[in-house]
Amino acid sequence: MTPELKAKIDNLVTQNKIMVFMKGTKLMPMCGFSNNVVQIFNTLGVPFETCDVLENEDIRQGIKEYSSWPTIPQVYIDGEFIGGSDVMIELYNKGELQQKVEVALAS
Description:
Radius of gyration: 13 Å
Order of helices and strands: HEHEHEEHH
CATH class: Alpha Beta
Strand content: 15-25%
CATH superfamily: Glutaredoxin
Number of domains: 1
Mean pLDDT: 96
Distance between the termini: 30 Å
CATH architecture: 3-Layer(aba) Sandwich
Strand order of the largest sheet: 2-1-3-4
Structural class: alpha+beta
Shape: globular
CATH topology: Glutaredoxin
């Protein structure tokens, strides 16, 4: 990964309380897993930002290296890598995601 790409991803992750690297946008998810994540955040009613990896091949590949996680979507809350769709569903169902989001948005 180039230093420029790392800096760009660092910036997206640190400048947004909730950042989702996904296929498509929050208004038009382009895969079911990305849609799951969007629906969870919409259900929680919290603000979140997205980066469409389909528009930038460098980010699409770079984010996998950045997080050491092989799949998209990838969710970051308050700068911390949380996981993908399955992890988000699990945390949501346990009620833990709501807590993480509330703490992040309060800070």
